[in-house]
Amino acid sequence: MSPLPGRRAAFRIARRDAARAKGRSALVVAMIALPVLGVTAADLTYRSALPTKAEELTAELGSADARFMSTSVGPVKLQQMPDGVNWGMPEGAPDPTPEEQAKPVDVPAAFPEGSRHLTERSVPASVTTRHGIADTEISELRVADPMLRGRIELTDGAFPRKPDEVAGTADFVRAAGLSVGDRVTVRGPEQTYTLTGTVELPADLRADHLYALPGAVIDPWQKTADGDRTILPPQPSDPKWLVKGPAGAGVTWQDVLAANERGVVVKSRQVALDPPPDSEVPMASESGGGYSTEPETTAAVLTVAAMAVLEIVLLAGPAFAVGARRSRRQLGLVGSCGGNRGQVRAVVLAGGAVLGGVGAVAGVGAGFALTALFRPMIEDYTGSRFGELTVRPWEILAIAALGLVTGVLAALAPAIVAGRQSVLESLTGRRGTRRSSRLLPVIGVITLTAGVGVAVYGGVAGDTVLVAGGSVLAELGVLGCIPVIVGFLGRLGRRLPLAPRMALRDAARNRGRTAPAVAAVMAAVAGSVAIATYTSSSAVEAAYDFEPNMTPGTVAVAASDIGADAELPRSRAAVEQNYPVSGKPADFGRVWAGSDCSVYYEEENGCGTLELVKPTGKGHSCALKGAGARELALRLSADEHKRMMNSPACVDESSTMVAFGTGEHKIVIGGADVLATYVKLDDPAAAKALADGTPVLLNSAYAKNGEVTLKATHLYNDRDEKMRARHPGKARTTTDRLKVYVAPDRFAATPGIRMVMPRETAERLGLHVEDYGSFYALGRDATDAEAQATYAAIDQAGNRAYLMSSNERFRRHDDTDTVLLVLALFAGVVTLGAAAITTGLSKADAEADLTTLSAVGAPPGVRRSLSGFQCLVVALTGVLLGTAAGLVPAVALRLTDLRAALAEMRADPMQSAYTPIVMPWETIGLLALVVPVLAGLLAAALTSSRLTLARRAG
Q1: Which of 341-355, 368-382, 442-456 comes out lowest in average pLDDT?
Q2: Are the beta carbons of 841 and 515 closer than 8 angstroms?
């Protein structure tokens, strides 16, 4: 006889009940399976995408046993750690002399006897493409050798077998517009190669590389450069050797130590996977041992896991409650046949276990299937191939167990309620009345207040554990207040039409069904809003800290060497014909005094100088730099510091970029078109000032009483024979006061330019002027093909100019928008799901009310509108509460960041302390407006308005 006959019967009843109520069972299984699916897929993806030590070695070594390389210290004894990364001179050893460092290291002599090796060298190069010219890196490496399998794999065509053949990575071939069989020319030596195939690096799918045979590129290039001084010689990297040790032996730690004696550093697969004890590692014994890299489980992970379980319980709990209510007659029969309250509870809990188990199995299976299905997309997104689909059985079992336990927990509260009902109530179908707890809202308010206080204190104190704990407490406090909030909603419907009034009153009357669904929506939205707020705030902070090299939306073509101004018209034409520029070019020039320092820079004091003198005093000197800066920083708030950093006096101190041939003075020669195209200063008064010969000053800190001081040293080098003949005698220094037009302060941060001076003014002051380039406004960002075509056209125009584009495109290409969209979609899906579940349950639970509506003559469309408004009430209430709850951890975490930023600013007053809190209004608007309305419309559309005949109850 079974020792648990009651439990077996409970599971049998639960299984049959689940099979009978297929819709409700599928709903619960889906609620449990979806999070299990997500966690399973995330675990598999994380474990598979995170390379093991063996996979990291394969990505670096292929199937070789080790990599040997020399160092910059010459053939002297070294010490290294087993990882092959950290190395150094033995403690107490004398530094190598320059003669010793210049001696070559005989690396092959350090190979184990009987081993085989490959050599590898790389060189940066500019090559022709189908569109024009592109920069890349060429490696001389025999990629067809089996020793490189696992590191480099062929994807199309064939490996290079001849000296005039190359293979390219798929990313480079795609960007260059090439295909197998095309010809590629290395610019400079003009060596031409045939592209025989495309390859990929599994560890770096975005690699931009070409591969040739050893000796096919660098040596011929060097030989060509030796015979033609106009060709720049190659700049190759130091050679490396990939070594395959004797069969069955590999490269041991003793082989590594022997190589160290010759001045060779070795990265051995065998040693890295099975390192020797510290007692056998000389460098480890001198440095005091190794270090641990074991990861620790953070409070954030535990918080997320706890909230995920809570959310599943909140979503699935009402379904079990309605199931228990609809099965109350069956449960009453269990009691009438002698079953006690524990056995009644066991039937409901068994239902949770059955559906939880099915949901866990379905979720794990779907997680495996989806991970395998979307594996190529995940690999493309992460930029690396999975070594293999890594499965950790205990983790998968724990995830499945979590789903099972969650199902039981979701059924716990309904089981307790069902066990308390009398047999008579269960058999007659009477629900009885039960007042809601008055203590729960009080506890909720206290918990909410305490949670907010703890989170804010943790943010100010810089303790993320307190932030996480306080955020959870605050959310639990809101959960305790939800029944009261839902009850209050019923009072808002007095003046509303029939359908919304009934929806609000139904939600208030059935709080046990409505409150958990609202809470589930709130939990999902709170997490999404918290992450979205923190992400948006961090993105705004990063944008503020970003230092552009040019005004966004502009590009410049500039002369690449002295005297190249005569070639500028052809270079301008190359840009205008190939790059997506708009409008006319704004030509600019450079200015200098005495002999040109761009030419005569070799000897000290061999050229002239030009300086825009900055006055001292308030409004001119930056108080955040120099004496007293730290004392001042201690008294400043983040906002006060930001205002000072953005003032003209300080913005010039924090931005030291020099461009456009200006030198430290940052003065360019130009007209009103430079102001309009590059500075973006559309001011007729400024344009008139330039036309009248008055310079336009962009930084008001350099002006005093509307004038600037320009100091020039007219020193001419003896080698500058032409100018020396015109200006004999000693060097002279001039100081001129110039009346200037001062631009508004917002233009003080214009990248690379401090003042725009008319050509005639510079010449009147005895300064030298030369055309240097042109600014263009961009209609849009250039494609790879357009950039390559432009480089090729500039090369054909004489290659005496270069294209300078804004680095703004790198700042824009981040994942912030993607993260915000994913968060909004996640919260939206959970909101729709929770609202749909509640609407479905309320429809099943209130069938009698709907029948009564039909009996008293309500139009058929009332059923649709009632379902829609029921869904809208749950979604909108949950979203609004979740938005408020999500701000608590986001604000607290930003306070933590603010504390750290202020500490850095007070140590270095020129460091930014700007730590904004930015609301993600697009995400909040999507959740607060679009999702609830969509939920209501879907619920109304999917509800049948046809009347069904029902017999009289009883």
Answers
A1: 341-355
A2: no
Cα 837 to Cα 531: distance, rounded to the nearest angstrom: 26
Q: Does residue 124 contact residue 118 with C-beta atoms inside 8 Å?
A: no
Query: Using CA atoms, how far apart are residues 793 and 787, in angstroms rounded to an integer?
Result: 10
Who's near 693: CB < 8 A, 6+ residues apart?
758, 760, 761, 764
Sheet holding 609-613, edge to edge: 609-613, 707-714, 732-739
- pLDDT (tens digit per residue) in 721-756: 888 878 787 888 999 999 999 999 889 888 889 999
Report the C-alpha gap between 550 and 555 in whole angstroms.
Answer: 8
203 with 162: CB under 8 angstroms?
no
Q: How many other C-beta atoms are found inside a 10 Å radius of the C-beta of residue 808?
A: 17
* Residue 944 confidence (pLDDT): 65
The sign of the torsion formed by the CA atoms of 588, 592, 596, 599 equals negative
- Reported as type and span, the H/E element at residue 212 is strand 209-212
Tokens of 245: 């040790």
DSSP codes, 30-75: HHHHHHHHHHHHHHHHHHHHS--HHHHHHHHHTT-SEEEEE-TT-S
Closest CA to 564 of 794, 772, 795: 772
Q: Which amino acid is it at 288?
A: G
Q: How many CB atoms lie within 10 A of CB 378?
A: 17
What span, in angstroms and rounded, lies between the C-alpha atoms of 691 and 93? 69
Whether 662 and 744 have beta carbons less than 8 Å apart is answered as no
Q: What angle do CA 309, 312, 316 make, to 5 degrees?
A: 145
CA distance 608 to 730: 12
| The two three-digit tokens of residue 763, written as one number | 């010449």
Q: What letter represents residue 271's amino acid?
A: V
Rg, the chain, Cα only: 37
Q: What is the dihedral of CA 27, 32, 34, 35, to 10 degrees?
A: 150
DSSP state of 873: H
Q: Other C-beta atoms within 10 Å of 205: how many? A: 17
User: CA-to-CA distance for 302 and 307, rounded, in angstroms?
Assistant: 9
pLDDT for 99 equals 80
Q: Considering the chain, what is the average pLDDT of its residues?
A: 80
Cα–Cα distances (Å) from 24 to 182, 516, 841, 850, in that order, read 62, 17, 8, 19
* Among the listed residues 411, 436, 431, the one whose alpha carbon sits nearest the alpha carbon of residue 348: 411
